[in-house]
Amino acid sequence: MLKNYLKTAFRSMYRDKWYSIINIGGLSIGMCVAILLAIFIKHELSFDKFHDDYQRIYRLHNHTQREGLEEQRLPMTLYKTGENILEQAPEVETLVRIFRMHTGNVTIDGNTIEGDNIFYTDSSFFNMFNYPIAKGEKINPISEPNKIAITQKIAEKWFGEDNPIGKSVIINSLDYDTTAKTFYQKKQVLNVSAVLKNIPNNSHLRFNIITSFQTASREFISTQGQDFFTYVKLYNPISQSVYEKLDGINGETLEWGLGAYGVNKESVNTDIMPLHKIHLNANYHYDIAITSNKTFVATLGVVAILILAIASINFVNLTTARTSNRLQEVGIRKALGSSKFQLAILFIGESILASISALVFAFVFAELLINPFNNLLGTSLSIYYIKDVGLWGAAILLSMIIGVIGGIYPLLTISKFNTNSILRGLTESGKSRSLVRSILVIFQFGMATLLIFGLLVINMQLRYMNKKDLGFDKNNVVVFTGITKEISNSYKSLRSDILSNPKVIEVSAAQSLPGGGLSGMNLYLEGNDPSTAFNIRENRVQDNYLETLKMNIAEGRAFIPDAKSDNDSYIINETAARMLGLENPIGAQVVMWRRPGVIIGVVKDYHFTSLKTNIEPLIISRYNSRIYNLTIRIREENKEETISQIIDIIKKHEPNYIPSHFYLDDFLAKQYGAERRTYKLILSASILALILSMVGLYALSAYSLARRTKELGVRKILGASVKSLYELLIIDSTKWVLIANVIALPVGWYFAKEWLNDFAYRINIEPLIFIAAALSAYTIALLTVLWQIVKAARANPAEALRYE
After folding, report:
1. Most buried residue, 95, 253, 408, 703, by most Cβ within 10 Å?
2. Which uninterrupted H or E stretch holds 478?
3. Rounded to an integer, what distance in angstroms lies between the CA atom of residue 799 and that of residue 711?
4. Nearest residue to 524 via CA among 590, 617, 574
5. Amino acid 505: pLDDT
6. Nearest CA to 412 among 398, 432, 395?
7. Residue 60, CB half-sphere, CA atoms under 13 Å: how many?
């Protein structure tokens, strides 16, 4: 009997190839999308769970709130905080602090090679975190000073196929002169003690070089402020009493270190975040963590559900619509003695067979599309059939459920008819079946409209961010990084040489750039109590920096080139001027982190962070001669040729310079990488959802019009015009789409509003967006069925009356 049912199922699918292709193909595409997105979501939720006892590891974040000032949120603490926790909190099993710095170019066997970021940390690092060691010292490779562990990636880059264990690397490290009270650069020899396997993709910490704090100068470490990422591993999951103890220790330590600037323990709120939640929940400037956005991940989940739901609705809709074509077959089977159970096996079995076939094709499509999918989301995921057995089991179960639903509804409908009625063609009109299918069409096109609405909002927000005046000119600015001590020392002569190129407009240098990290300082009026200080960002620049980026001075002036008096002068932005509370800040004596100076200018507010955040107070200084990048404005023509010429000039001053540069506008665009990925994803999902909806609507309208052939013929004979038939059929075929728009657009407005709340500077959701989304969905639906409507309305009534 089973063999007979399978044979019948395959014959039925083969007999109606068009139906089978649409039904199985549409469902397989929806399943494929759901599989790919499920793999990504699973990856995002797996971050840092490969560490032993990850449930007991936490990171400390400082949230400091002072009266009249915005809350300062930092993912770091003072170095002293860790020492005090170890002394006062016996509940802590292990503590690790991390300080990140750049090595500059490194020297290996006399050869200069591009460096990388280096982590200075406690020697307990490998007791807390499980980063596998490929070769070298297995227990604790950084237990002694000047020992480093490097990843396989950097080992291959630095040493090729040679064994790096025991090899020496010379880096450029920083130290602090306590007498001169200045930082200076020094060469330091480090020895490779271990090679780590490359850091897993689901680790929020990414590094290639790591050493202990014993390697760093104690004087240098002691001069750093809230610059240490602090992790604790507790003996037991955190409790309220342990949280309060750690919060108290951290608050007291901050009061000890920053009490002179108005910070007291009551103003400190310590956020203690579980390790596995950092990736999706930590949202801080100057973080070393690889972070994502839980809203983005949730959006992917919603998209997966929407696409799968649309595909499943198509499957069920087409299966039920096709039931009317098989009534005669069912009547004959009933007449020959088939029971309801046997009919159930037949219909549900055929539907499950179709859904399982769709799942097989979905796996094939997923394999073919995994690389484009990775390119879309900027990931490097793979499909592991054994490792992800739970995921595949869920996929099989889901396909079975869809198959059962697709088969059981036609069965319930047919069971209402007796054999005599079926064989005589006296069945009901099917209004109840049409109503259910109409509800499903509403749901289907409602989700498509929702995606279109989201797509329009995201696109308009991205365009707004691209076109918004940032307060400076980002175009045609190229930034050179990898600046060595030699380049820094010869900056003025180098600048002169670069400016001699007629294709170069202006040259300057700075500690940071718009969109980059800035130093955290505080500022108060000289003579006032230091407790009145407010947090401020500092950028240390060279002459002509404002001119290079075409920033506008609101009051006062810019730095005078080579004027030594301006080394003790500051330029602030308009936000900082407002916070000082002075009508005329020019000439005001201020103190920035123990360094007094005079305000000579106020620059108009510009966006030195992304448009997600409000403009913060900023101070621009020129006392530091050390440069970290070259900022060069060039002419539009022949950019690459100009850059090549600049590199040649730099190499004349520093033969070992390793070229590294980027365009400022490209650098700024990366701030919105997540938003651009969301846009691409929603765009792809919208196109797919619309295609699936169009296919489903087309097939349903074809079945619906076929059933109304006789009705249309009668209407024509009774005098109905072609125009009236057009109106009738268009309304009947698309009215559900209009209802879908009415339901979906308020939902879309709510979610779009929530998404836009992440941006300090954002668009308004205008009525035009609602109209555009509704018209797009309705127009697509109308075009989908229009040809069939024209064909049906123009049909010969004589042929129509012979239809049955």
Report:
1. 253
2. strand 477-480
3. 12
4. 590
5. 96
6. 432
7. 37
Percent of the residues in the chain that have a pLDDT greater than 70, as a whole number: 87
pLDDT number for residue 426: 46
Q: Band of the pLDDT at 238, cuts 50, 70, 90?
A: very high
Q: Report yes or no: 571 and 556 within 8 Å, Cβ to Cβ.
A: yes
State whether the Cα torsion 652-653-658-664 is positive or negative.
negative
Question: Cα(53)–Cα(276) distance, rounded to whole angstroms?
Answer: 11
Tell me the one-letter amino acid at 755: W
Cα pseudo-dihedral 465, 467, 470, 472, rounded to 10: 150
As given in the structure block, the two tokens for residue 512 are 């940071």
Pairing of strands 117-121, 147-151: unpaired
Most trustworthy range by pLDDT among 6-20, 294-308, 459-473, 687-701 = 459-473
What are residue 90's phi and psi, to 5 degrees? Answer: -65, -10
Helices (H), 654-796: 664-669, 673-707, 709-717, 722-756, 767-793
List pLDDT tens digits, range 386-428. 667 777 788 888 888 888 887 776 666 665 555 555 455 545 4
Here the tokens at position 595 are 């360094």
**How much is the pLDDT for 430?**
47
* Element (DSSP H or E) covering residue 592: strand 589-592
DSSP 3-state of 418: coil
Longest C-alpha distance within the chain, in Å?
107
Q: Which residues contact 709 (CB under 8 A, 6 or more apart)?
A: 792, 795, 800, 803, 804
Tokens of 718: 């009774």
Cβ-in-10-Å burial (0-12, 13-18, 19+) of 78 comes to buried
**Among the listed residues 90, 85, 96, the one whose alpha carbon sits nearest the alpha carbon of residue 129:** 96
Q: Is 402 exposed, middle or buried (0-12, 13-18, 19+ CB in 10 A)?
A: buried
Measured in residues, the chain has a length of: 804
β-pair partners for 151: 196
Eight-state DSSP code of residue 48: T
Angle between helices 722-756 and 709-717 in degrees, nearest 10: 130
**Band of the pLDDT at 164, cuts 50, 70, 90?**
very high
Give the Cβ contact number of residue 799 at 10 Å.
10
- State the Cα–Cα distance between residues 544 and 560, nearest whole angstrom: 8
Amino acid at 412: L
Q: Which two tokens stand for residue 246?
A: 């750690």
Pairing of strands 229-234, 477-480: unpaired
Q: Give me the mean pLDDT over the 527-534 stretch.
A: 82
Beta bridge partners of 571: 601, 620
Which contiguous run of DSSP H or E holds residue 521? strand 519-525
Residue type, 769: I
- The rounded distance, in Å, linking the Cα atoms of 589 and 799 is 96
Closest CA to 128 of 118, 116, 142: 142
Is 745 within 8 Å of 693 (Cβ atoms)? no
Write the pLDDT tens digit of every residue in 57-86: 999 999 987 666 667 888 999 999 999 999
Find the helix or strand (DSSP H, E) in which 269 lies: strand 268-274
384 burial (CB, 10 Å; 0-12 / 13-18 / 19+) is: exposed
pLDDT at residue 429, rounded to an integer: 47
Q: What are residue 98's phi and psi, to 5 degrees? A: -130, 135
Q: Residue 524: helix, strand or coil by DSSP?
A: strand
CA distance 469 to 378: 28
SS3 content of the chain, % helix, strand, coil (to 5): 55, 20, 30
